[in-house]
Write a structure and sequence with these properties.
The protein is an alpha/beta fold and 986 residues long. It contains 31 helices and 18 strands.
């Protein structure tokens, strides 16, 4: 086939095809040099003499014949002694591309190799021996995970809200509240530990874990929500620090303070709260200052972190010391000291209505209950992801993340439980509800210590949020899933400056809002959504238990992860069903956006493993029995090997994919596109892989659901015979072979096509595969070309209803939805016509198919029989075919007489009945004439495929077929197989 034979050539696809990009191959003369060291056990020393005790060898990777003699013998570095003994280290047994050489010896020399990642479209797969550029500063468990988690958890809620929560909920329900929220984060920490220890972990923290477990769509959507939660949490901490500062130093306020009148309490003085404008101005300034610290990088943050944490721990010490001394000092009215009476009075809850400042007020707009307190308190236990957010900066993620995260979670939970008893026994309920800074009131020796502790703890938490959120956003951008995030990409070892600026803008926007109670539910939903994603990821991976699931953290179980995920969902709805719906809708919109606009990426996520196991289970449940006609789906085996040549970089005829889509109802079903490379498998294996990737890319471009397979065989016949026997599994084997009719065999004088074509059809018959041969494929309409002619079926032999089913599938496509079906039944005698028509009408009615039935009678073999004379074109084609067959038969007989052998054709003896050949020609002529008479204007014609006659040369069969399809523009030649594909019953 010449290039001009294909009218639907896809120029856009040709421009997109990667030109000449191949996998990097390891060749015999590869210059890769691997170093293997054997280090003496014993104390290390920095002296040069002891360093020389370590012997090094250099091994050139290559075949023995091509290796340099010096390299084969091994060489010592110049500073090693000349007489030092050493062993040769050769791995010729494994070949020059042994993975032992490429990967194993790398780790012995402490070479840093790139973490494995899944290639995306257009990427090359290479094994590099270079050292990754990374940040030289790596953090341990304490400074990398425990301190950031502790700073995030011990924040503003503890200092200025927790005593109020104890007063509102009472000691009993406060303990339940802490245990409930603490259990959720503890179970999430266990799930996080299991996933984080299941292999090397790159930057991105929980996003990286969720994405690799649940897929890029889920990972990006939840990761972006978690990023927003961290950014908004930074604003929460900044506002808390500013509010505390303005209460400690009222003179610093620029605007007049807001005075809240106290109703229903015994507190004699009014409660003052800072002006919202002061909160906004100071909040913006503080956010900018923190951003400058974050711009300084990890080194600057680590230097500043202890300065924030140590005063916090000291302030906690002062609070507890002051509480123990309060019984004697009595610093304020309502402070009873640690009293059993206060403990009993504060045991039960006392939910009240408050104003916006949280002060009890019968006319207030805020009514509190346990559910509302969950939403207020839960941000106090968040922050367990602060360490994993900085995973790219950790020395050992598999050790630091589990130990640091769980230690911080247990430490803070224990502190909260102790504080519940402490505050409940320390003051009256009125004092707990009205003194928002009770911790400062009771602090020893003076309140300023607690003010400093509050400010530094909140600033430290804000610093951790502004550090983790940009790195999370940069990690999402570096995965190159969403093109819109490309602005936030950073190179390895660089700081995410643009992402930090973007996070700062979000934080400043939330600071301008200025109301903590409006911000906390939003943060809670985003954090809970992330925690649920982590738990679901561990649940899925643990339940599937794939061979790659081997976490170092052994204390986990899928039931714990499921319980953790359930707690997250329950807490979300307990807090606010409206916020829950909004957050889930936002995550769903992000998921949909990523699935539409995102780039394809295969991360080996758990869903792929689930699909695999589901497919295996479904395959086993289908068994090896025949599928019921009600459940029958066409699984086309599309034979892409053209009869001739295709344009460069086009692996399949452009219209074959369009036709394969026409055989599916609403796109359901699978197609297998196969092609054959002639030659030796050992020589063409790499070419086959490249061709398979090209064909798969082309199938995706044509939006046809299917898989690509390339087979290397000595010739087309043998290759197809192997395909038709082995392709598929169980009942998912292909059941229809689709190929193009070889219209060019005579024009191109391709003598091998007839034998190959007949072999393919015979192989399909023996393998019990249906056959659909498309004639006029170049003129086949695409999805935008609407057809208004009829779909004509020449139903000559029983085929299990395949031809009828194909016509119905064509009607489901936009191209043919305006067409109508006509069924032509071929009867030999007039007496059979009426009965046959009635039977076919009843059959179509029971099958719920609307079609007009027409019976055509063929009374005799005579070409001049009743029914009309053939056209001049048909007669000319008939005469030409008969003459060519006669000439071919004469040549066969002369060759047999010359060689003294029987008649031979296609390499095997044949027996030719000349009278039977004439009958075949007459029958084919009559059928062709009937098609041209009734269906010249049809959109598409379907006709039964005659089987190749036994002992007839393949050349004869091609002449019969050519005569059958003569002058028919668009024709499907169909042969069913020994089973029904349609059923009358419901």
């Amino acid at each position: 086939m010449d290039n001009e034979d294909i009218e639907g050539r896809d120029e856009e696809f040709l421009s997109r095809m990667p030109g000449g990009r191949k996998y990097r191959q390891v060749v015999a003369n590869d210059q890769t040099v691997l170093e293997m060291s054997t280090i003496d056990p014993g104390p290390s020393s920095s002296s040069s003499s002891e360093i020389h005790q370590t012997s090094f060898k250099k091994i050139k990777v290559g075949r023995q014949a091509n290796m340099d003699p010096d390299a084969r013998e091994g060489s010592m570095p110049p500073n090693a002694g000349a007489n030092r003994p050493h062993r040769e280290s050769k791995l010729e047994l494994f070949g020059f591309d042994s993975l032992v050489n490429i990967l194993g010896l790398k780790s012995m020399t402490e070479e840093q190799i790139a973490a494995p990642s899944s290639p995306r479209d257009g990427e090359d797969i290479t094994i590099t021996d270079g050292r990754l550029k990374g940040n030289d500063l790596k953090l341990g468990t304490m400074m990398g995970v425990f301190v950031p988690c502790l700073q995030n958890i011990m924040g503003i809620i503890y200092y200025i809200r927790f005593s109020w929560i104890v007063g509102m909920a009472g000691i009993g329900e406060s303990l339940l509240l802490v245990a409930f929220c603490g259990l959720c984060t503890f179970l999430t920490g266990i799930s996080l530990s299991a996933i984080a220890t299941n292999g090397a972990m790159k930057g991105g923290g929980p996003y990286y874990l969720i994405g690799r477990a649940l897929g890029p769509e889920v990972g990006v959507s939840i990761g972006l929500c978690f990023f927003l939660g961290n950014a908004v949490a930074g604003a929460l901490y900044v506002l808390g620090a500013v509010e505390t500062f303005l209460k400690a130093v009222p003179a610093a306020g620029i605007f007049r303070e807001t005075i809240t009148k106290v109703n229903g309490t015994v507190t004699p003085e009014p409660i003052q709260s800072p002006s919202s404008h002061d909160l906004q101005i100071y909040g913006i300034v503080v956010t900018i200052l923190l951003c400058f610290i974050v711009f300084g990088g990890v080194k600057m943050i680590n230097r500043v972190a202890p300065a924030f944490l140590i005063p916090v721990l000291f302030s906690l010490f002062c609070i507890f010391v002051g509480g123990f001394l309060a019984g004697t000092d009595k610093p304020s009215a309502g402070i009873t000291g640690l009293s059993i009476t206060s403990f009993k009075e504060n045991w039960s809850p006392d939910y009240q209505t408050t104003n916006n400042a949280g002060i009890p007020d019968p006319d207030g707009k805020s009514h509190w209950n346990f559910n509302a307190l969950v939403g207020l308190f839960f941000p106090a236990v968040t922050g367990i992801m602060a360490g994993s957010n900085r995973s790219a900066s950790l020395k050992d993620t598999q050790r630091s993340i589990p130990v640091g995260t769980l230690a911080a979670t247990l430490t803070t939970t224990a502190l909260y439980i102790i504080s519940v008893f402490f505050f409940g026994a320390l003051a009256t309920r009125e004092k707990l509800l009205t003194d928002r800074l009770l911790t400062a009131t009771v602090a020893w020796p003076f309140p300023a210590v607690v003010y400093i502790g509050i400010i530094l703890s909140t600033l430290g938490a804000a610093l951790q949020s502004l550090t983790g959120a940009p790195r999370l956003l940069a990690a999402i951008a570096n995965d190159d899933i969403l093109p819109i995030l490309n602005y936030f990409k950073v190179a390895d070892g660089n700081e995410p400056y643009i992402a930090t600026m973007f996070t700062s803008f979000i934080c400043i926007g939330c600071v301008i809002i200025g109301n903590l109670d409006l911000i906390t539910p939003t943060i809670t939903m985003f954090f809970l959504l992330c925690y649920a994603g982590v738990n679901l990821s561990c649940f899925l991976l643990d339940l599937l238990d794939a061979p790659s699931w081997r976490p170092r953290w052994k204390f986990h179980h899928w039931s714990l992860s499921l319980l953790g995920a359930s707690l997250c969902i329950v807490i979300m709805f307990l807090i606010s069903w409206s916020f829950t719906v909004v957050s889930l809708a936002l995550a769903s919109l992000m998921y949909y956006y990523v699935s539409i606009k995102g780039k394809a990426g295969d991360w080996g996520d758990g869903f792929k493993s689930a699909y695999f196991q589901l497919a295996l289970r479904s395959l086993r449940s289908l068994g090896a029995n025949q599928v019921h006609p009600k459940n029958w789906y066409p699984i086309p085996l599309v034979f892409c090997r053209p009869w001739g040549k295709l344009p460069e970089n086009v692996p399949c005829h452009p219209k074959l994919a369009d036709f394969a889509n026409c055989m599916k109802k609403k796109g359901r079903g699978m197609s297998i596109f196969v092609s054959i490379l002639d030659g030796d498998y050992h020589e063409l294996a790499e070419d086959a892989k490249t061709a398979c990737k090209q064909l798969s890319t082309y199938i995706d471009y044509k939006r046809c659901e299917g898989v690509a397979e390339i087979v290397v065989a000595p010739n087309m016949s043998e290759g197809f015979r192997g395909i038709v026997q082995t392709m598929g599994l169980g009942n998912l084997k292909p059941n229809i072979v689709v190929m193009r009719y070889p219209e060019i065999w005579r024009r191109e004088n391709l003598t091998e096509i007839p034998a190959t074509f007949v072999d393919i059809i015979n192989d399909c018959i023996i393998a019990n595969k249906a056959v659909v041969i498309v004639k006029g494929l170049d003129e086949w309409p695409n999805e935008y070309q609407r057809q208004y002619g009829t779909i004509d079926l020449y139903w000559i032999v029983r085929d299990g209803g395949l031809m009828l089913l194909l016509s119905q599938l064509l009607l489901t496509k936009e191209s043919f939805e305006s067409s109508k079906i006509q069924v032509f039944c071929i009867a030999e005698e007039d007496s059979d016509a009426e009965g046959l028509k009635a039977d076919v009408k009843k059959f179509l009615y029971d099958l719920r198919m609307q079609a007009e039935v027409i019976v055509v009678t063929m009374k005799s073999w005579d070409v001049q029989a009743e029914g009309g004379s053939p056209s001049d074109d048909s007669l000319e084609a008939f005469s030409g075919a008969r003459k060519r067959i006669a000439d071919y038969l004469v040549d066969m007989k002369e060759a047999a007489q010359r060689d003294g052998t029987p008649l031979m054709a296609d390499g095997k003896p044949v027996v030719v009945n000349e009278q039977q050949v004439e009958k075949f020609l007459y029958t084919t002529l009559k059928l062709n004439s009937t098609i041209l008479k009734y269906s010249r204007m049809a959109a598409v014609v379907l006709v039964s495929l005659p089987p190749p006659p036994v002992n007839h040369p393949s050349y004869f069969y091609m002449e019969y077929m050519d005569l059958l399809v003569e002058n028919v523009q668009r024709l499907l030649i169909v042969r069913g197989y020994r089973r029904e594909v349609v059923t009358l019953f419901t």
